[in-house]
Amino acid sequence: MAPHRHGEKVDAVEEAMVVEERRPISSVLIIIAMQTEAVPVVNKLELKEDNHSVFTSGVPWVRYHGTYKELQINLVWPGKDPTLGVDSVGTVSASLVTYAAIQALKPDLIINAGTAGGFKAKGSSIGDVYLVSHVAFHDRRIPIPVFDLYGVGLREALSTPNLLKQLNLKLGNLSTGDSLDMSPQDESSIIANDATVKDMEGAAVAYVADLLKVPVVFVKAVTDVIDGDKPTTEEFLQNLAAVTAALDQAVAQVVDFISGKSLAEL
């Protein structure tokens, strides 16, 4: 038998990718960082908590699951820190739970939903809900050629022009870091990232999803205006409950739109 030529292999891979993009989506993994953000979505989609964890023993990660609009839905949040009892926010927990959930649940698509800070200079207001175009880190500064690009970790979210148009959501870039506040160095990096919204998980989810070749959509609702008049912590806590209601509605609308469609139709 004659050996396959390199071009034939490339063609086969491209053909397989086209077939995958046109296959109806059947399994969606929703990753949410905080219990306050997760519970309304769980209730809206009528998901049930998993009493027999698919994850390794000892981790605090929580999974809810169910069938909604003919989609198999899994929602995972990292749970409470075993020592301090607070939500396990940040990039480390997000990376771990994303990797473990992809391995265990084999989703067709990931939705990373959550609250975020927004920038008035970019047109953000409290309660705005964004789909994300690109995501990058703003607190991994490695001023060495090529390592600097690795630190930023720029990645593109799944393009969803039909979803964006149908739901009339805003579109912007997301910048991720492990601090709620914003240092001058972070601010410079966020400006360089051309970010409209800022969170503590997105770029970590994107990194793992890219490694394991699972498309990801980001839905972010603005709780605080970072370049506004109020302190970030105060405004975040003040608006968290109301904004999670907007987030819950947006996530449900996104899932409704996804039902019965392929990746190419989004």
From TrEMBL:
Pfam families: PNP_UDP_1. Residues 28-255 form the Nucleoside phosphorylase domain. It comes from the Eukaryota. GO terms for molecular function: methylthioadenosine nucleosidase activity. The lineage of its organism: Eukaryota, Viridiplantae, Streptophyta, Embryophyta, Tracheophyta. PANTHER family: 5'-METHYLTHIOADENOSINE NUCLEOSIDASE, 5'-METHYLTHIOADENOSINE/S-ADENOSYLHOMOCYSTEINE NUCLEOSIDASE 1. This is Nucleoside phosphorylase domain-containing protein. InterPro entries: MTAN, Nucleoside_phosphorylase_d, Nucleoside_phosphorylase_sf. GO terms for biological process: L-methionine salvage from methylthioadenosine; nucleoside metabolic process. SUPFAM superfamilies: Purine and uridine phosphorylases (SSF53167).
